[in-house]
Amino acid sequence: MKNTEMLTCFQCGTCHASCPSGKYTSLNIRKIVRDSVKKDVSEEPELWMCTTCYNCQERCPRGIKVTDAVLTLRSEAVKKGKILPAHRKVCNILIETGQSIPLDDKHLDIRKKLNLRTDEVSWKKARKEVRVLLRSTGFDELVKR
Amino acid sequence: MTKLSLFTGCLIPNRYPGIERATMFVLERLGIKCSYLKEAACCPAPGIYRSFDKITWLTLASRNLVLAEEKRTDILTICNGCYSSLMDANNILKNDAGIRNEVNSHLAKIGKEYRGTIEVRHIIEFLHTDVGVKKISDAIEKPLEIRAAVHYGCHLLKPTRERKLGSSECPVFFDELVEATGATSVPYESKTACCGAGGGVRSAMLETSFKMTEYKLDRIQKAEVDCIIDACPFCHLQYDAGQVELEKSGKDYNIPVLHFTQLLGIALGFTPDEVGLHLNEIVNLKFEEKITKIENGNKNEK
């Protein structure tokens, strides 16, 4: 990633010390973002261990947009087809239903009992339009890679 | 007061509909006019889609924003993920003409155009700023003398440059709302730390995400609270279902988890069942007894 902002990092490690995921995983946010300036990090599994909590970005004394950099690095990895199976599954659910967590029969029943709206006409229209948009942006092709 | 459209997202209507029920009760009771954003779809969830492809993320978010523009209302969210996606997308689209044109070229295919005429709100900051702690406190029918662990959730506060709700290190506005219900917001270690669910970590690395949840729950348990109060259904799911998962490794928390609208609903006179507490994984009878006792105590006083 050609992001010159990263070159202003003076390696204090505040980002890594603030990282909730780094406590339990091999994610070293300072290292991966720094490495991304000089090499391709698309293959590194750590890229997907970030919860995007923004602690690193908020606390960086140089004001580097660390979390935003992770998002950019992830999209570069996705373009190369580096997609975790679980994420690919969620993307396909979005393409099919227009939602990330679609309504199931159990919760449809609960909604009815709670007297909450069940509006199949609006939901169908939403589903259709989302599908048109995902085809237009090339998202359906992107997640097939 | 600005007109509002309620954006419910996916997780609340489809997994925790009690939160939606509570939200409707609370808005009605406080006299806040708010109607559904009927044809809305996924916000789309920031963790995965924003990571995957920025233009796709912005295009789907803009469709939801345009639905509210057409109604001439602001959007009211009840989830930190929806708030984050819709607010960040709205800011990017308002400020970057190049990106806006690109997104509009996609929207044209469904006959829509993003104009940038509305704002995105989160119910917590909306209640604090536009309704106010005093009005909420005055409306309370059953002051809830309970100890609560407040969990803001990351994307309600951060990135602070976008949210403009003050520092994310020691925020107070959510605690003030919780205390308006009569509850005590109990301080606990690592209060603003992440629940572990975000960024696609829960969906792809469930066990890792629960390690972060365990870290939080251990500290919440130490604070001897009656319940956890959150502002986001994803944090809610992580704490609620997470406790059940962590029981398998010998943990015993049994801490009820409530979205703020559920707590406020109870304080405004609705029963725990009416606001859907029984739909949680963790159902703590002692907590419900305590709430019922408060309800009955108040009835006797009247």
Share in β-strands of chain B: 5-15%
CATH architecture heading of the largest domain in chain B: 3-Layer(aba) Sandwich
Q: How many distinct folded domains of chain A?
A: 2
Helix tally of chain A equals: 8
Rg over CA atoms of chain B: 19 Å
CATH C-level label of the largest domain in chain A = Mainly Alpha
State the name of the first-level CATH class of the largest domain in chain B. Alpha Beta
**CATH fold-level name of the largest domain in chain B:** Rossmann fold
Write the layout of secondary structure elements.
The complex is a heterodimer of chains A (145) and B (302).
Chain A: H1 14-17, H2 29-38, H3 55-59, H4 66-79, H5 85-97, H6 105-113, H7 120-137, H8 139-142
Chain B: E1 4-7, H1 11-15, H2 17-29, E2 34-36, H3 46-52, H4 54-71, E3 74-77, H5 80-95, H6 97-107, E4 120-122, H7 123-131, H8 133-139, E5 147-150, H9 154-157, H10 160-163, H11 173-180, E6 184-185, H12 201-204, H13 206-222, E7 227-230, H14 233-247, E8 257-259, H15 260-267, H16 285-301
Helix pairs in contact in B: 2-15, 3-4, 4-5, 4-6, 5-6, 7-8, 7-11, 8-11, 13-14
If you had to describe this structure to a student in words, what would you say it looks like?
The complex is a heterodimer of chains A (145) and B (302). Chain A is mainly α. Chain A has two domains: 4-79, Fumarate Reductase Iron-sulfur Protein, Chain B, domain 2, CATH 1.10.1060; 85-142, no CATH class. Chain A has helices at 14-17, 29-38, 55-59, 66-79, 85-97, 105-113, 120-137, 139-142. The radius of gyration of chain A is 20 Å and the shape is elongated. With 302 residues, chain B is of the alpha/beta class. Chain B folds into two domains: 4-123, Glutathione S-transferase Yfyf (Class Pi), Chain A, domain 2; 134-301, Rossmann fold (3-Layer(aba) Sandwich). Helices cover 54% and strands 9% of the residues of chain B. Chain B is globular, with a radius of gyration of 19 Å. The two termini of chain B are 34 Å apart. At the A-B interface, helix 3, helix 4, helix 5, helix 6 and helix 7 of A face helix 1, helix 2, helix 3, helix 4 and helix 12 of B.
